[in-house]
Structures are given as C-alpha cells and as structure tokens.
Specification:
Glucose Oxidase, domain 1, 10-stranded mixed beta sheet, 2 domains, 356 residues, 10 helices, Rossmann fold, alpha/beta
C-alpha cells in the first residue's frame, strides 16, 4: 500500500506503508545509530515521535524479547529507506513488519531518508502525518496538541525490584528504560519504581538511601509537580542521580532553564568530554531539550559537554550529593564508554553495606 509522509511545512515524501498501516501523526526526529533499532523502537522517550533511521537498512536481524526497553514499541511511527523482511539471526522471533503490525505501529519505507534528515536539520523538528495515498489531509488536526507523553509511559503503580535486604533506591519513573533497571538491580539495590506524579512524602516513606530520576519523553518544563517533588527530596540531602529527562528536571528544580534544540541529539555516536578528567567518551543519546548554560546558578557546575555543539551533558551540585547526565550510561543501544557513571552514584550510597 502506497503512503505519503506530510510535514507541517508542506513537504511530502512518498513511500510504501508497512506494520499497522494506520494514519498516524507525531513529531518527526532522526536517529543516527547504525544498529539498535529494536531498543529505539521500544524506548519510552520516543512517545509522540516518528523516528527516521538514517542507516539505510533496518530489520536485518529481526526482533527478540531480550533486547526491548519496554514491553511494546513506543514510537508513533518508523520511517526507513529499506526494510528487511527476511531477518537472519539465531535470536530472532520474527520480522519488524509483523512486530509493528501486531503492536499497531505504522511504518513507511522507500523514503529518501537522507533528504528527510537534511530537511529536519535545516528546518528543525517538524510535526508530520503518515497516511495512505488518497487519504485527505487535515492540517488543523496535524497541529493539535499531542497527548501527555510521560503519563503514557510511567508505571501505574509502585513496582519493587531486587532484594529487600539491600540498599533502598527510589526510582522516579518518567519513562525508564529496562536497561537502566537492569544496571541498578545488577549492582545490588532494592528498588521502588514510583509513578512520575508520586508525592515526595510517599517516596520518603520508603526510606530510600538515594534517588534516581529516569529518562523520559516531552518538555521537562511541563512537569511542574515532579519539579516541586524533586525540590523536597533534594532538601533532605539524599544522594540523587538524574539521567536525560531526570538531568533536566534536577536543573529546573535548582532554578536553571531548559531550551529546545533545533533537531535534538539521537544516536549512538555523540562525543562527550568529561571536564574533570579531560577524557572523551562516545555516548548514546536521545533528547530534544538541553539545559541553558547562562541560566545555571552558581552552585551547579558543568561536568560534561557535547563536543558537537558544546551543550551541557553533565552537572554537579556543589552543596548537595546530587549530579546528573544528559546522555544514556546504560548504553542500549550504543557504546559502553559511560557505564562507569553508575559508580559515582554507588559511591554516594555506600556508607553502609551494599548487598551484592
């Protein structure tokens, strides 16, 4: 079935629909990773977005249940140059076409993804809609607000992971990736995974030794309740680590501001410099917003920068045991250069015995 991708500025791209083949809209973004499409499809941070893969062939190793970052795909749509329907991998449980169809996710292939990516880089992230050829286009519908993204992906109830005899960690779930949970469990923590809007008092009643703020989708400035709760938790001087959206929320709770990047950072090849060691790491990233350096209060120090555009990639509070990073240390998908950042959080927690 032929399909058309319409962008809000009037640009059109023609291709062939696959997956659910439903009419779908969202923010058009691109990812430069050469592999890891399965982790990208299931990353909760992609809610409300239609992802263009810049690597031309997608689907060659199929999909499996071990590498997902959530129980189902979270992208609004997948846009590719060429889709492989005959994957070859001993772990594959099927092809991407069937996987998306079963989960009601639409895809479109045959698109000139290089031209589309260059268009996004020039114009910035644009709204788009994918529909079948001949289906009428309603631009007013395209520009209507999208649903609350964090509400779509946060846990509905408190979940517990690990051994109750171990160090307690409160995980504030704004759309946490499974790989982050795996890293925390592997390090021997007992984790309470709280819904995004949980009040600080309820989190404190768990008596955690530390708090981790997860990644997630959307504009961080919209999460006013979460920001207020983070302020209360910080006042308790608990060790706190923020990842991606969590990094932005810590900054906002400290009085800084965030701004939207023209086309964001998405891929597994972003160079980040650690200003405290001088070392450079290649990182996995997925975000639209960044912390505005000119808005930083004096008690927040920049610890990492992106070498592509010099945006902030890490911060440290100079008066509290609080730090944050913009990139993804769990490395799924992507390089493992930055996994060791979890050691920094662990060092803030290890006043007592860590159960391993």
């Amino acid at each position: 079935m032929r399909g058309i991708l319409h962008l809000e500025d009037g640009t059109q791209f023609e291709g062939t629909l696959f997956g659910a083949k439903n009419r779908v809209k969202g923010e058009m973004v691109f990812n430069t990773s050469m592999t890891g499409y399965q982790e990208i499809l299931t990353d909760p941070s992609y809610v409300n977005q239609m992802v263009v893969m810049t690597y031309p062939l997608v689907g060659n190793y199929g999909f499996n249940w071990e590498d997902v970052e959530s129980i189902s795909p979270k992208v609004n749509a997948l846009v590719v140059k060429e889709l492989c329907r005959t994957p070859s991998n001993f772990r594959s449980k099927g092809n991407v076409d069937t996987y998306l169809a079963e989960n009601e996710i639409t895809g479109i292939e045959g698109i000139d993804t290089r031209a589309l990516t260059l268009h996004i880089r020039e114009k910035g992230a644009l709204r788009g809609v994918i529909l079948s050829e001949g289906d009428p286009l309603d631009m007013t519908d395209l520009l209507k607000p999208l649903p609350d993204p964090v509400k779509q992906v946060t846990t509905r109830e408190i979940l517990y992971h690990g051994n109750p005899e171990c160090i307690k960690i409160a995980l504030l779930d704004y759309g946490v990736k499974t790989s982050i949970l795996h890293h925390l469990i592997k390090r021997g923590y007992y984790i309470a995974q709280f819904p995004a809007q949980t009040e600080a008092e309820q989190i404190l009643s768990f008596n955690p030794r530390g708090v981790l703020l997860s990644n997630g989708p959307g504009n961080p400035e919209d999460l006013t309740t979460a920001i207020d709760n983070i302020k209360i938790l910080m006042a308790k001087k608990l060790p706190m680590m923020g990842i991606c959206l969590g990094h932005q929320l810590i900054s906002l709770a400290c009085g800084a501001k965030t701004i939207k990047l023209p086309f964001g950072h998405r891929g597994g090849n972003h160079p980040v410099k650690d200003l405290e060691t001088g070392k450079i790491k290649i990182t996995s990233q997925n975000h639209s917003y960044t912390v505005e350096e000119s808005s930083l209060p004096a008690f927040l120090r920049v610890t990492h920068i992106n070498l592509n555009d010099n945006t902030i990639e890490g911060l440290k509070h100079l008066q509290l045991p609080v730090f944050s990073i913009q990139y993804h240390p769990e490395a799924s998908p992507g390089p493992e250069d930055s996994v060791s950042i979890f050691n920094v959080f662990q060092s803030l927690l290890e006043e007592g015995h860590l159960c391993l």
